[in-house]
Here is the input.
Amino acid sequence: MQIIDLFSGIGGFSLAGHWNGWETVQFVEIEPFCQQVLNKNFPGVPIHDDIKTFDLEQLKKSNWNPSASSIVCGGFP
Here is the structure.
């Protein structure tokens, strides 16, 4: 199972997914402090900084497998 985590904050949804053996393939988070936490806890997972410019081309640059099951989650403010 793959996770695409939008409005990620510090990655709570992805942490829960990791505990279940799932892989986060993309974060979208604008806050620099949260990006630092995500980089520390999820090294190598791409972080896009603006939901308004995030698109399929950005997702294709990640480790996303379109034929795998994916979860899109978001921690809306």
Observations:
- Strands lie at 2-6, 23-28, 47-48, 70-74.
- The chain has a mean pLDDT of 94.
- The longest strand covers residues 23-28.
